[in-house]
Amino acid sequence: MSFPLAFVATAFVIELTPGPNMGYLAIVSVRDGRRAGFAAVLGIALGLLLVGVAAALGLTAIIAASRWLYEALRWAGALYLLWLAWEGWRGESDVAQVRQRDAPAEHSRFFVRGLTTNLLNPKAGVFYVATLPTFVNAAEPALPQVLLLTVIYVAVATLVHAAIVLLAGTVQPWLEDEARSRVARRVLSLLLAAIAVWLLIVTKHPAS
To answer: For 1-35, b where at least 16 C-beta lie within 10 A, e where not — what string?
Structure first.
């Protein structure tokens, strides 16, 4: 299997499209800084990897085939994103408070949330089931190809997510002002809430 440049380009385009990861990372990085953002990036990467492995083993296909399982996952993911948006809106923690907390514990919280966001994201499962197989060479064993493409996709996604954290983290010192920070946080929270509603619309089960 030659290096799939077309798949890399497709992955970049998909990841540059606004979605739950982009919105959540922007909120975390603006509100809590780059370290928190990178912790969330690692959680997202692990979540995407686990979903990819599940797809390779056929688990996501089973979920997609069951309307009730799919709908449960879809609504759980959307409600979780709405909860994160609400948390960002009300300002669960400001930058000064975060810096006074125990850093390892705080960063592990962002890691877990990044992981959970993607385990409950039906869009990721749909990508692995519907898009990724189109890049698999039928003349070669499928499983090694799917795993390789999964790793490539996670790597591309992680690069994009890290860039988002760096860009958002750049303006974070400017947002030390409480009023500016509140406005930015709430705008990003509204964006994340809109993304949650958008996901509910575009990921509707075909049998619905």
So the answer is: eeebeebbebbeebbeeebbbbbbbbbbbbbbbbb
